[in-house]
Amino acid sequence: MSRMGRVHIPQSINFVVLQAETGQTIYANDAEFRHLLHLIGRSAQRSRAHVHAFCCCPQQIRLAIAITDVPLALCIQRIATGQSRYVHRQRGESGHLFRERYRAVVLRSRAWLPALVRSIHRSPCEWALTQDWATYPWSSHRAYATGRRMNGLRTGVMLRMLSTVCSKQREMYRRFTEVDDGDAVVPERLRSPFGSNATADQWLAGCIAQQVKHQRMTLDDAIKAVAQVLDISRAVLLSRARASRLTLARAVVTRYAIRTGVAPLAEVERALGRRRSALYHAITRYEQTNPKLFCKTLDEVNVAALEEACHRDVPPSQHGCQRPTRRERLRRRVASIGRVCSATSAKASLQGAPRGRATR
User: Fold this and answer.
1) Of 194, 213, 232, which one is at a domain's C-terminal end?
2) For residue 107, with 0-12 CB atoms within 10 Å meaning exposed, 13-18 middle and 19 or more buried, which class applies?
């Protein structure tokens, strides 16, 4: 049986853990680590992703990475494959460098980012590699503390969350990370949901528990809820019709199912009878025009915003997904026949009279 594909949630922040195979080391010297750092930056740029923090040890890599429209799996694949090839070429070895698949969880709130960065930077103490994690050379802590730029690393997002004053951001970061009880330094909305000194395993388990907690609805329940909000029947929503209101409903269902993990994209594709490219196009279109349509729970769906989006995209004569009248259909058919006849006559006149007939 094939394993379930990764869930792709655009514009999300992910906590990723890559574990080395037993008996293997991801890097053994400075040259291999510099190559790994180069791969992280280049892969993030090629995938249009942003790395907010990282910390590496010979047996594990921890990343806080924000993705856009390119799936996270593609970015991690480039990092893992590139490092494996480089290390095997340098050491003259072969085989697996990383163990199984990478582990990744999505942060349900962007306000958790400072706490996650703090947990990642304090990982060397958890691994018992050093007593002072601030002097650990193979993490992004120095970029935050000194302002040193690194390829693919974005520090401004997390620093602006700690303080809006540029001159106080790095001092606020030092206070937040160096104190054992870092939650006492920042506002309540930026505090870690799993404790100040939560480990990577606690973050993974906590985020998975949060995701399972919000998976109360099935895909069929989501379809029924959106159909009820837009006042359309479930059969019409699942039909082959391509009205603007139906396209919006399918986009909302798809976005909710992917964001909350209710169902993978392949299942949504089969249930709605639409290709994934069409569903992604609809989501991108409505996210640009009205991002408030796509909320975390269906209970927060704004009916007025949905109605406004429907009437904004459809001409006044087609509001409410009404079919054109009989007179309108007849007029369109006559116009179409007229265009075909005109094109045929023009083609015949260009070709001239047929051979074998006398011309008048």
Assistant:
1) 213
2) buried
